[in-house]
Amino acid sequence: MKNNTDYQTESLDDLNDRYARALLPLTIAFGFLAVFGFFGNLIILLVFSLSRDYKRNNFKVFVLTLAVIDLVICLILIPAEMVKQRKYFEFGDVVTCKVKCFFNVFGASSSCLALLVISIDRFRKVVQPFKKQMTPAIAVKVLIVVACVFPILFAIPGTIMCGIKTTNMTNIHGGNTTIHLCETEDKYDKSIWRTIYKFTFIILLVGISVTYIVLYIFVMREAAKQMKAISVQRTHSSLETVFSTGNYFQNTICNDTPETNRKQIGINENTGSNMSVPILMNNGSPSNCTLQNGGSNHTGSIEQICNRYGRPKSTRHLPTKTIIWFILTIVFIVTYVTHNLLTLKVGEIVNMSPSEFTLFSFFFRIYFLNHVINPIVYALFVKRFRSSCRNVAPMLLLKLRQCCVR
Questions:
Q1: I want to staple 279 with a disulfide (CB 3.0 to 4.6 A). Which of 59, 254, 302, 324 is the partner?
Q2: How far is Cα 305 from Cα 268, in angstroms, rounded to an integer?
């Protein structure tokens, strides 16, 4: 007869397989993100490097920098996470664990600091256009230090403290099973250095995120002012065109109340010479007008006529580059803040059911979206990028032929 205690045990393999099955849809989804992100960022590198449509400027430097960072994450970090999900609770490979921990910190800090450099560049160009600007050569040097060297140095302490942690987890029978997690090693778990390192990372992320928001508020305000000024300028230009350039109609007759002042203005459509045509003005501003072009009369306010006949369209949209960097920055803030908030719940995963753990893992790694979304954003907002993507294959063939000829 079996002892009742036999029913209270679940082997580590069985426990791990049970959670791995629940995580399988998420693992497959991450695999899709890795493939899409790899090819998407590879296309970005090819298009912006080989196409003659993109001159060497800050935008090109920033795009290539983010593409390299995201390509590394899609090649190393996301596949490493997929491996971890298959053996989450029996992770015994210390080297793989440390590599994953390194790129976790490197990917977050590198993207964070690269976007900070981009937001500062946007601020200088839009809000302070007459001050000394960052050149492409300077941008490359700054990004090498800020988005490459510093993240590597910052990731080293986390990699040292990362390792295999052994603990107990409640199994399906309510008993305990010993598990092995890829997390902070036991000897560093309560260390003051671990606490300092963790909160330094969080403070930097929050501080830089606030800096993003403040800088882009100034950028948006200034861009809105510029759009309004351009709109007003074009409106005045259109009114002057109707009454001064002779591009539209031979005769202009504006009618208003008897109390208005009368002016004599006329334009010959073909020669541009002045003709004497009565225009009634209300305190110096045209009110209701009839524009005579041959046998045709066109009546309406000057605003309506200008809209109907040839007024240049005013700028109604923010600059494309500003929109692109703002979207990528917002995605970064939302995904990484979500990740860091959920780090406070990591200690509770030993008490989570498979479905709860799957949901937790999805939001905990939602920052992977930050590394695969760039191709989509460029395709949506940069028309030239869409057309260049169609020419990637011909460009590569041309480069290969040139290399063969040499």
A1: 254
A2: 18
What is the Cα–Cα distance from 360 to 354, expressed in whole angstroms?
A: 10
Length reported for the chain: 406
346 touches 288 (CB < 8 A): no
Judged on CB neighbours under 10 Å (0-12, 13-18, 19+), 158 is: buried
391-397: long-range contacts, CB 8 A cutoff, minimum separation 24: 391/51, 392/43, 392/46, 392/47, 392/50, 395/46, 395/50, 395/51, 396/46, 396/50
Burial class of residue 25, CB neighbours in 10 A (0-12, 13-18, 19+): exposed
Find the Cα–Cα–Cα–Cα dihedral 70, 158, 143, 37, rounded to 10°: 0
**What's the one-letter identity of residue 360?**
F
User: With b meaning 16 or more CB within 10 Å and e meaning fewer, what string describes 81-94?
Assistant: bbebbebbbbbeee
Are 278 and 292 in contact by the 8 Å Cβ rule? The answer is no
CA distance 117 to 120: 5
pLDDT at position 17 is 93
Distance between CA atoms of 160 and 317, rounded to whole angstroms?
48
Gap between the Cα atoms of 207 and 218, Å rounded: 17
Q: What sign does the CA torsion over 273, 276, 282, 288 have?
A: negative
Beta-sheet pairing, 278-282 with 285-286: antiparallel
3-state DSSP assignment of residue 267: strand
281-296, pLDDT tens digit by residue?
444 444 455 544 444 4
- Rounded to whole angstroms, the Cα distance separating 157 from 104 reads 12
The residue to which tokens 């977050």 are assigned: 108
* Separation of alpha carbons 265 and 253, rounded Å: 9
Which portions of the chain are predicted below pLDDT 50? 1-7, 242-287, 291-296, 301-303, 305-306, 309-315
Vertex 269: Cα angle to 263 and 270 (nearest 5): 140
